[in-house]
From TrEMBL, chain A:
Record localization: Cell membrane
Entry keywords, A to Z: Cell membrane, Membrane, Transmembrane, Transmembrane helix
Source organism, top-level taxon: Bacteria
Alphabetical list of CDD domains matching this protein: TM_PBP1_transp_AraH_like
Transmembrane segments: 26-43, 55-74, 161-190, 221-244, 256-289
Membrane topology value: Multi-pass membrane protein
The protein, known as: ABC transporter permease
Keyword field contains Cell inner membrane: no
Xref: PANTHER family: ABC TRANSPORTER PERMEASE PROTEIN YPHD-RELATED-RELATED, GALACTOFURANOSE TRANSPORTER PERMEASE PROTEIN YTFT
A UniProt-annotated Pfam family: BPD_transp_2
Record-linked InterPro entries: ABC_transp_permease
From TrEMBL, chain B:
Keywords recorded for this protein, A-Z: Cell membrane, Membrane, Transmembrane, Transmembrane helix
Pfam family name, one: BPD_transp_2
Lineage: Bacteria, Bacillati, Actinomycetota, Actinomycetes, Kitasatosporales
Keyword Kinase found: no
Biased segments, Low complexity type: 19-32
TM segment ranges: 50-71, 83-116, 122-144, 151-170, 194-215, 246-265, 271-295, 327-347
Membrane topology: Multi-pass membrane protein
Location(s) in or outside the cell: Cell membrane
Designated name of the protein: ABC transporter permease
InterPro entries in alphabetical order: ABC_transp_permease
Extent of the signal sequence: none
Length: 324, 353
């Protein structure tokens, strides 16, 4: 955002296309647009309301998790435990549904907040590296979820919860609506609130932020709690969509998808900047890429290799800019 | 292997020795000697604490569960642990340089499938094909990290996806399982053994011995510590930082491929679904073993104890029939937190004294 001001304005419109910073700033949007254009021209039944709706519903949980991950990465951290948090939230849901939907939701979200609080405490107070701190709950969290659920898949019959997964408002699926609202809220949080500025400042230079009197520990714990709550919410929505609580497989490899979305969206792993819209576009890009390849009868393996190539390309472009 | 790490050991001793001839005053060395002892104790606990925990757990388990301390159980357990051990060895070296290798789980699975695919052509193709391909993956990681200057976490995350993708493409989306011919020399490598201890165990032990020597007794090993301590300082000292990093990631790829090949020989087939999440198990073992994720300090022996501790936990959960296997990850995760928090406080007390 700020680096743009230091660059001299391009003399000719095409000159900026040779500027790597331009690709980092807008590359992900261009890629999404190109992919959509390609599909509009060459893929049958792609630009239909039904298909786009499916794609958006599928990408919504990833977007929600990635929003929290973007905040954590903005503080130069990482949260590997998000997938396990989703499983934990899903395991808590059927246990408390007997009391009604709201208590069950509250308990599940609290479980996510608790995971985040543990992560945040380990990172900020104990001073562990984020990878190690969240690795412990990545390993333990899913085990705990399985213990809670007796390792079983439980059918969800509560109509209110199921409505959350399948219902829609003004033609937009509720899941997508929630993801969209959250994206706007997180963008507002980052750009317009003290907390958001503190997150970015701590990620940019933690010792400097501490010396400037920012409440580093409190903000770090807050960020991990937020990430945990968002992951739990994604777990709830995915469970509602699945119509069953499946702690053994829900959210597996979600941490990788979320990190990929954040990184492809242009947020550097070294912290100090959070790109919310880029993160959403990054998640969309990965989803569209996979969908495009599947619709053209290319196997899943090709999609995985293509994803790998895109990650490398995104990070390579980001590197060009940092080395200036 | 346990005597010298360059980082913590040497700066401790110098202040004790130097003031004595210079000033000649009694309190100087005495005051310095006391924290030195404290630091040594802290260092000993940090380096050998895992071994103590491991021995305690094994000892208690032997008394409580008669089926635990049997030779058969030890044989089964060590073979199970040997594959993770080989992968974790490579991970230790990578982490000592301050990096991380998330691709090992996928590369492990790819190595197994390639070994099983190549096994009908004989013993050496079955070993060489996975080693070459997985080594190439490691080389790719190393070049992208060291030459292009990209973050290890994200590069190896991408190769994690790529290796899994290539594996799926190679096995018709996981539908084909290549089998290792029965009674072939390659199958014997995985299933045979000496005194009932499987070949994979012996290979893992030999590799750990070699790894320990490499780390402590060669200039390459010392360079790893220097690079992990501070890549900039190492560059200024004229050490071949880029080459060292490329080598260490290649080594990690090779070891993951070898572990995959051994596992395929053991299972008689190239199972496509193995190795998911193995990178995190390996990192857990390395961290429990006292190697710091920030790089610059660590030991190969600690990793071995870390792997064994994870294996013993898994085995014990199985022995306690009433607990289901989910408890295993809860206990492992708990151990990980306790160990790293303890390490953190030990390291802090060492620095402040």
């Amino acid at each position: 955002m700020t680096a743009q001001a230091t660059l001299s304005p391009p003399a000719r419109p095409l000159a900026r296309l040779r500027d790597p910073a331009w690709y980092q700033e807008y590359g992900v949007y261009v890629a999404v647009a190109v992919l959509l254009l390609f599909n509009a021209l060459f893929t049958e039944h792609f630009m239909t309301a039904g298909n786009l709706r499916t794609q958006l519903v599928q990408v919504a949980p990833v977007v929600i998790v990635a929003l929290g991950m973007a905040l954590v990465i903005g503080t130069e951290g990482i949260d590997l435990s998000v997938g396990s948090t989703m499983a934990l939230a899903a395991a808590f849901l059927p246990l408390y549904l007997g009391y009604g939907l709201v208590p069950a939701l509250v308990v599940s979200l609290l479980a996510g907040a608790a995971v985040g609080a543990v992560n945040g405490t380990l990172v900020s107070l104990v001073g562990l590296q984020p990878i190690v701190a969240t690795l412990a709950l990545f390993v333990g969290g899913r085990g705990l979820a399985l213990v809670m659920a007796d390792g079983q898949l439980k059918q969800i019959v509560n109509p209110d919860l199921l409505a959350l997964g399948t219902g829609s408002f003004l033609g937009v699926p509720l899941v997508v609506l929630i993801a969209g609202v959250l994206a706007v809220a997180v963008a507002f949080l980052v750009r317009r609130t003290t907390f958001g500025r503190q997150v970015v400042a701590i990620g940019g230079n933690r010792p400097a932020a501490a010396l400037a009197g920012l409440p580093v520990r409190r903000v770090l714990i807050g960020v991990y709690v937020l990430c945990g709550v968002l992951a739990a919410l994604a777990g709830i929505l995915a469970t509602a969509r699945l119509t069953a609580s499946d702690p053994s497989s829900l959210g597996t490899l979600m941490e990788l998808s979320a990190i990929t979305a954040v990184v492809v969206g242009g947020t550097p792993l070294s912290g100090g900047s959070v790109r919310v819209l880029g993160t959403v576009a990054g998640a969309l890009l990965m989803q569209l890429l996979r969908a495009t390849l599947v619709k053209h009868d290319l196997p899943d393996s090709t999609a995985q290799i293509a994803q790998a190539a895109i990650i490398i390309a995104a990070v390579y472009v980001a590197r060009e800019r940092r080395s200036r | 292997m346990n005597e010298t790490t360059p980082a913590p050991g040497s700066p401790v001793r110098t202040p004790v020795q130097t003031p004595a001839p210079a000033g000649g005053s009694a309190p100087g060395p005495a005051r310095a000697a006391e924290p030195a002892v404290k630091q040594r104790v802290a260092e000993l606990v940090q380096r050998q604490g895992v071994l103590a925990v491991l021995l305690t757990v094994v000892l208690v388990a032997s008394f409580v569960y008669p089926t635990f301390a049997t030779l058969d159980n030890a044989r089964g357990m060590t073979v199970q642990a040997s594959f993770l051990a080989v992968v974790a060895l490579g991970m230790t070296l990578v982490i000592i340089t301050g990096g991380i290798d998330l691709s090992v789980g996928s590369v492990f699975a790819l190595g197994g499938v390639l070994a099983a695919w190549a096994s009908p052509w004989g013993f050496f193709p079955a070993l060489l094909v996975p080693l070459v391909v997985c080594g190439a993956f490691g080389l790719l990681n190393g070049v992208l990290i060291a030459r292009a200057g990209m973050a290890p976490f994200i590069v190896t995350l991408a190769t994690l996806l790529a290796a899994r993708g290539i594996l799926l493409a190679f096995t018709d989306e996981g539908a084909t399982t290549y089998l290792v011919p029965k009674d072939s020399a390659f199958a014997e490598l995985g299933q045979g053994g000496v005194w009932g201890f499987g070949h994979p165990v012996l290979i893992a032990l030999a590799l750990f011995g070699a790894g320990g020597l490499l780390l402590q007794r060669t200039s390459f090993g010392q360079t790893l510590f220097a690079v992990g301590g501070s890549a900039d300082a190492a560059t200024l000292m004229g050490l071949p930082v880029a080459r060292t990093k490329i080598l260490v990631y290649t080594l990690s790829g090779l070891l993951a491929g070898l572990a995959g090949a051994l596992s395929a020989a053991r299972l008689s087939s190239g199972v496509t679904i193995v190795g998911v999440g193995m990178e995190l198990d390996a990192i857990s073992a390395v961290v429990i073993g006292g190697t710091l994720l920030v790089g610059g300090a660590g030991s190969v022996s600690g990793t071995l104890w870390g792997v064994l501790l994870l294996a013993v936990i898994q085995n014990l959960i199985n022995q306690i029939g009433s607990l289901n296997s989910s408890y295993q990850s809860v206990v492992s995760g708990g151990f990980l937190i306790v160990v790293v928090v303890a390490q953190r406080y030990l390291a802090r007390s060492r620095r402040t004294t």
